[in-house]
Design a protein that fits this description.
heterodimer; A: alpha+beta; Phenylalanyl-tRNA Synthetase, Chain B, domain 1; Phenylalanyl-tRNA Synthetase, Chain B, domain 3; seven-stranded mixed sheet; elongated; B: alpha+beta; BirA Bifunctional Protein, domain 2; 9 strands; rod-shaped
Chain lengths: 686, 341
């Protein structure tokens, strides 16, 4: 909001330069964003805080400056001459919605002479960003700038029945507002209007309409000075897309008592500039008058909350500038708060006044005193889980980084198109999306990662990305939220490479019971992101914690990724990973006896899985001396390998816990293994 | 009798001329081997008369020892030469680049978040998290944000599509949270003071994006509650944080502000210590003393506790730290950006 330094000076003894004033206001009251030198004046742009509607005027700001500097405040001249004729005989007011209009005051001025405004008035309006219209309208605007009360002037003779009715608009009612384009607005029952007996004259608290405005031929005017509910004005203003100087002020919330002073001030100025006779008294409907309220605040609380030792004399001085100090005893201050300070309601509000006026710069940093630890969390508590998750997440990120994947942060949103491509039918929907790019919440990390992959492939062939983050699923009217860790890589043999990385990831996290198997759950929610013939379920214990596999060729196609480029991806639930990591590691003794290592090389039908072979070996009579089976070579589609077959080679490590093995023992077990492989899988030992 | 003098002369000459260890080994066989003249002679000594045996034996043995010493010395010398040659042969260009070992990168927001957590942990703060999809209740109602506050408007907050019925109940009405302050009452509802926590996490705003605005970003909320926690303590904690984070002595300044969930409310500025920010006051946090109405929502008795709360944007701190000028880079997943960290 714009403020004129010169106009402020009319209301307060101002010895500070505009720059110095700006500095003080910015620290203690509201940020001065800009100072422009215009003519002999400095125009300050000040960002008024949402709770300080009392500062939306020059008089209000001057009052604040007086508080901050201790200088004397000068009130505007409110004295005018009254005629004998009573206002109440000329104009009637009726409020149908008192909760939306706590106060309405009307004043009639007869025989005014409409004309241009004097130079001083035009100048101040223009320098504060308003237009000069005529002397009446200019006065109403000027008083708004001066005192903060929006006013409106009607042509008395064009108010049907000389009665003002504050009511909800009726369905289908329209109004053309007072702007050059005469914009027409459709009204409705949620919009409060000022009407006469026939039609709406103005949108309450926002803008006046054509038909009752002041024209050159106006002789008698009705001045409106009213108070409207802030919420309703704000909602209407948003709904109509109509923000005016009046609606902004009402939206902050104004003191209804201000309407009373402001109408006197406007009347006084109109009489000065346009002549006319003011009728006696005014027509006011103000059923629940707001009166100053008392607040009591403990003295010890003030310095305890601020954390400083502000002398009582200083506090006294500050409080008496803002409020009326009613009482002060050994323990507390009791103050009466003026009605324009709607923001001061609690003891803490008082303390804020003391702190900011005393000066935040005078409050020294103090280290807190508090027990150095809290009782340790029990293992079943939410705190424990959060702590473990944060630790585990950090380790997981470090491991994936070490494995050559780079971390990215994608959006939590899905576009309409991504939702379609990834068939994310259970994605929660945003009711008020800002763009088509962010219409849904993501149901997994894979869509974002794959899209990021696609973008990066334009610059690089070796893209390896990972992400941790929350994903969302619509469950009826509720949303389920889970944390996921996922990664994606591109390149030759991407699946094998990624699986190796994920296996290493598990080992580095201390998880040794992770298994990979064909999908057993045909309804796995994100199954359709994966190549149906190249996807594995990842299991820890009995629980499936995610999937690993190649990107579905259909999605690759939709995204225009070259079909020959292999893209592999994994996605795991974080919670079961954290649980599995929590399992304590138990030390195993270093083997006392040497191992014998033998290799077996065999030919089997191509469709036999390595997993089956390993299971088969496990099923042989191994006399508990097989410590490990390690696949080190797999050949297929090779001239040395017969059609339809593959060649596989293993290291088998034999060791006993209680003696040094002799070759014959290993031979015997090896024969058993070979036999089950031949009999069970039709393997040909080479 | 063999000519020992001749053997001595010939052998010493051969040894001195030997160029390689192999040559030397051959000479060893030739002059000292089992079938060498000298060995044969020594073996034949037993057939000589005693006086001649002693004399010839002495001379021959001396020659053998001399030869052994010479050959030993020569061997040592040749080994050194050979080693030197080998070393010379193995010379590599150490300025040529090493074999590349691929590694990944952590996102700058992860790095900065860890730094923040470390600093606050060192002051005894616990790290707490909360859900990203939050109820209207925790996001607004418990924080004394009135039902008509503009922050609840459609243009600031994303809302999730729900039935009319659900939208009416703030305990059920859902939104992607607009601030991590939403965790305040969630936490306080389950914990009694004293405590101090920070709550880092992702938040969402219904805002058009540009270089300084994103519809998602990361904030961390600080909350410290006890019997006598004060505004001066808030300043102390933030001053400590600023010094640690900016790795230099800096200044913290409070200016008047307004938030429904704090009273008094302040905006926190920190003085930049290096680069473009040096000497400039940078807006860092919104903060204040927890409004008693928030304590009330948490079920604490009015006037029982005092505490401070603050909120800072992690993205902003990361942008200051690395001189990043466009917030959208943080969510663009461009490896040319990510690989720099």
């Amino acid at each position: 909001m714009k403020f004129s330094y010169n106009l402020l000076k009319k209301f307060v003894d101002l010895k500070l330069s505009p720059e110095k004033l700006a500095e003080i206001l910015s620290a203690k009251t509201a940020e001065v964003e800009q100072i422009d030198k215009i003519g002999g004046d400095s125009i300050m742009e000040i960002k008024i805080l949402y709770n300080r509607g009392d500062l939306l005027s020059h008089y209000g700001m001057a009052r604040e400056i007086a508080v901050l500097t201790g200088e004397k405040l000068k009130s505007p001249d409110l004295n005018y001459e009254e005629a004998k004729e009573k206002t109440s005989d000329l104009i009637k007011v009726e409020i149908e919605n008192p909760e939306l209009c706590p106060r309405y005051t009307a004043q009639v001025i007869k025989n005014v002479k409409i004309g241009g405004s004097p130079k001083w008035l035009k100048d101040i309006l223009i320098s504060l960003g308003l237009k000069s219209i005529n002397n009446i309208v200019d006065v109403t605007n000027y008083v708004m700038l001066e005192m903060g009360q929006p006013l409106h002037a009607f042509d008395y003779d064009r108010i049907a029945g000389h009665k003002i009715i504050v009511r909800s608009a009726r369905q289908g009612e329209k109004i053309a507002t007072l702007d050059e384009a005469k914009t027409e607005y459709e009204l409705g029952p949620n919009i409060l209007v000022i009407a006469d007996q026939e039609k709406p004259l103005a949108i309450a608290g926002i803008k006046g309409g054509y038909g009752s405005e002041i024209t050159d031929s106006t002789r008698t005017i009705v001045l409106e000075s009213a108070n409207f509910d802030r919420t309703n004005v704000r909602k209407t203003s948003t709904k109509l897309g109509l923000r005016t100087d009046a609606s902004i002020r009402f939206s902050y919330g104004l003191d209804p008592n201000l309407a009373g002073y402001a109408i006197y001030r406007a009347a006084k100025l109109i009489q000065e500039l346009a002549g006319g006779e003011l009728t006696k008294g005014n027509t006011t409907i103000y059923p629940r008058e707001i009166k100053p309220w008392k607040i009591s605040v403990k003295k010890s609380y003030i310095n305890s909350l601020i954390g400083a030792a502000i002398p009582e004399k200083e506090i006294n001085k500050i409080l008496s500038r803002i409020c009326q100090l009613v009482k002060s005893d050994a323990n507390k201050f009791v103050v009466t708060v003026p009605t324009y300070r709607l923001d001061i309601q609690t003891p803490e509000d008082i303390i804020e006044e003391v702190a900011r006026i005393y000066g935040y710069e005078n409050i020294k940093p103090v280290p807190p005193t508090m027990s150095i630890y809290r009782p340790a969390e029990s293992k079943a508590s939410e705190d424990w889980d959060i702590e473990q998750t944060i630790k585990a997440r950090n380790l997981m990120k470090d491991v994936l980084k070490g494995l050559g994947l780079s971390e990215c942060y994608n959006y939590s949103f899905l576009s309409e198109k991504a939702k379609e491509i990834f068939n994310a039918s259970n994605a929660p929907e945003i009711a008020n999306p800002i763009s088509q790019e962010a219409k849904y919440l993501r149901t997994g990390l894979i869509p974002g990662l794959v899209l990021a992959m696609e973008k990066n492939l334009r610059f690089s062939d070796s893209v390896r990305l990972f992400e941790t983050g929350n994903v969302f699923t619509q469950k009826g009217d509720e949303v389920e939220e889970k944390e996921i860790i996922a990664g994606v890589i591109a390149g030759k043999q991407a699946f094998v490479e990624l699986k190796g990385a994920v296996e290493s990831f598990f080992r580095q996290l201390g998880i040794d019971d992770a298994e990979f198997s064909d999908i057993t759950n045909p309804n796995h929610p994100t199954k359709n992101w994966y190549h149906p013939a190249r996807v594995a379920e990842v299991q820890i214990g009995e629980e499936t914690i995610g999937l690993i596999g190649d990107l579905h060729p259909h999605i690759k196609n939709e995204l225009g990724i070259r079909p020959d480029l292999e893209i592999a991806q994994f996605s795991l639930l974080v919670e079961p990973l954290v649980k599995a990591m929590e399992e304590e590691l138990e030390f195993e003794p270093i083997p006392k006896y040497p191992a014998i290592i033998r290799d077996i090389s065999l030919l089997v039908s191509k469709d036999i899985k390595i997993g089956e072979i390993l299971n088969c070996i496990e099923g042989a009579d191994t006399k508990s001396i097989v410590q490990d089976v390690d696949v080190f070579d797999i050949y297929e589609d090779n001239p040395d390998v017969p059609e339809g077959k593959k060649s596989i080679a293993f290291h088998i490590i034999y060791r006993s816990d209680n003696h040094t093995l002799i070759d014959e023992e290993a031979d015997r077990v090896e024969q058993n293994i070979k036999k089950v492989l031949e009999q069970g899988l039709g393997a040909e030992i080479r | 009798m063999i000519n020992l003098v001749k053997i001595e002369k010939a052998s010493l000459q051969d040894v001195s001329r030997a160029k390689t260890l192999t040559e030397l080994e051959n000479l060893q066989t030739k002059y000292l081997g089992r079938k060498s003249e000298l060995s044969l002679f020594l073996r034949s000594l037993k057939d000589l008369p005693p006086e001649e045996r002693a004399k010839s034996g002495q001379i021959a043995n001396e020659l053998r020892r001399k030869l052994e010493t010479e050959m030993g010395n020569k061997a040592q010398q040749l080994k050194e030469v050979e080693l030197a040659r080998k070393i010379e042969q193995e010379k590599i260009d150490v300025t040529a680049p090493g074999k590349r070992v691929e590694h990944g990168h952590l996102h700058p927001l992860t790095i900065v978040r860890r730094e923040i957590e470390d600093i606050f942990r060192s002051m005894g703060f616990d790290i707490v998290e909360g859900p990203e999809v939050e109820t209207e209740w925790y996001n607004f109602d418990t924080l004394n944000v009135p039902a008509d506050h503009p922050a609840r408007d459609m243009q600031d907050t994303f809302w999730l599509k729900q039935s009319e019925e659900s939208q009416k109940d703030p305990h059920i009405h859902l939104l992607p949270r607009t601030h991590t302050s939403a965790v305040q009452v969630r936490y306080m509802g389950k914990h009694q003071p004293p405590f101090r926590i920070i709550v880092p996490g992702r938040v969402f705003r219904n805002e058009a994006t540009d270089a300084t605005h994103e519809m998602q970003f990361y904030t961390f909320e600080g909350l410290m509650v006890g019997k006598d926690v004060s505004l001066a303590n808030l300043k102390g904690v933030l001053q400590f944080f600023a010094n640690k984070f900016f790795k230099d002595e800096t200044e913290v300044r409070f200016v008047a502000s307004y938030f429904p969930y704090t009273e008094p409310s302040v905006e926190v500025f920190m003085k930049g210590v290096s680069g473009k920010l040096k000497g400039r006051w940078i807006e860092m946090a919104g903060a204040g003393m927890v409004n008693q109405k928030v304590f009330k929502a948490a079920g604490y008795a009015l006037g029982e506790y005092q505490g401070f709360a603050f909120g800072m944007t992690i993205d902003r701190l990361a942008m200051f730290k690395y001189g990043i000028d466009d917030i959208r880079l943080l969510y663009g997943s461009d490896l040319r950006f990510l690989k720099q960290f």
